[in-house]
Amino acid sequence: MAGATVSPTPLLKDELDIVIPTIRNLDFLEMWRPFFQPYHLIIVQDGDPSKVIKVPEGFDYELHNRNDINRILGPKASCISFKDSACRCFGYMVSKKKYIYTIDDDCFVAKNPSGKDINALEQHIKNLLTPSTPFFFNTLYDPYREGADFVRGYPFSLREGAPTAVSHGLWLNIPDYDAPTQLVKPLERNTRYVDAVLTIPKGTLFPMCGMNLAFNRELIGPAMYFGLMGDGQPIGRYDDMWAGWCMKVICDHLGFGVKTGLPYIWHSKASNPFVNLKKEYKGIYWQEELIPFFQSVILPKDCTTVQKCYVEISKQVKAKLGKVDEYFNKLADAMVTWIEAWDEQNPSEGVVANVPAK
Asked: What are the beta bridge partners of residue 132?
C-alpha cells in the first residue's frame, strides 16, 4: 500500500466521521489539519458542560456536551459514561456516516522509518475497504496489500475473504500499558515500527485500544458500546476493552473481520499510573473472569443482526457475570438501553448478516 500522501480527493470524504472525546481545547488538530480538514468531526465534550472548548479555525465539526447528550437521549442518556473517554460512543450513535475514525486528543502524527508523516486515517480506510481473512491465517499477513498475495496451501474457496468491520491501529512512543506495567516500566517507549497489517483469527480475543481506531459503522456500530465507566462506576479504562470483546464475539458470529497493525500514531503523554491503578484495579481482577466468559459465549443462529447479538450477550452477562459483581447487572441493563437508544437514533438500520455455518 502506497505511503502517507494526502489524496487530492480524500478517501470516503462524505462517508466518514471523526469522533474525538475531550475535556480540553483541541490544539492537537493543527498537526492533523492536512489529513482531517476535509472530514466532519464529532467532538464529545466530557466533564463540565459550561466549559468552552476551542476548536481551531477551518474544521467542519459538531460539538456535544453532557447537556446535549441528556437532551438528545432523554432518560436513555444514563447509558453514556461521564468523566471517562467512554463518552465517545455517543458520537458513534449520532453519526449518520458509514465509517467512524476515533482518536484521542493526545495523539499526534507519527513518522514512518523513512521520516515521512503517516496519514493514519488513509491507512485505516484502506484496511476497512479491503477484506479480512479471519477463517484461515495467511503467513504473509494481509494478502490484499500491494506486493503480497495468498501463500501456497491457502484454500481458494476462502480467498475472497470477509468484510472488514474494524481496523485497530497502534502507537509509537507511549505504549498502551496497564497501571502495574506502567509502574514497573516508567521509561519504556515503543520504538518498534512493524510494517504489517494482519487479521485477528476467528475465536481469538484481543485488547482493543480506542485511541486510534476505525470501524464500519453500518456493519458493527451497535456493538461499539464503550460500557459504563468513570463517574459513579467502580471501574475505568476498560471501556474500549469491553467494546472489543463484545465486538469480536459478534464479528466471529456474523462472519466479519478485524484487522490490527498499521497505522501508527504518536502517543504523546502517559497518564498517571497511580490514578490509572485506582480506575483499573477491579478490572485487572475481574478480567480473569471476563476473558473465559467471552471465550465461551455462544450466540444462537437466529441472532442475525448486531443488535440481536448484543442483547443476547447482555443476557449472558447478567446470567453469568452478575454473580461476580452487581456492577455487571447494571452494565447488562445499560447495554440494552444503549441498543434501544441506538435504534431510536438510527431507525432505518439493522443490517441482517448471513450467519456462516459453524
From this structure: 162
The tens digit of pLDDT for each residue in 150-174 reads 999 999 999 999 999 999 999 999 9
Cell digits of residue 157: 474457496
> Can you tell me the distance from the alpha carbon of 31 to that of 27, in angstroms, rounded to the nearest whole number?
8
For residues 280-303, b (16+ Cβ closer than 10 Å) or e, as one string? Answer: bebbeebbeebeebbeebebeeeb
CA distance 208 to 175: 13
How do the domains of the chain map onto residue ranges?
105-345
Q: Write the single-letter amino acid at 184.
A: V
Strand-pair partners of 198: 260
Angle at 206 between CA 202 and CA 208, to 5 degrees: 125
Whole-angstrom Cα distance, residue 333 to residue 79?
Answer: 9
pTM equals: 0.95
Residue found under cell 447478567 = 318
Which uninterrupted H or E stretch holds 3? none
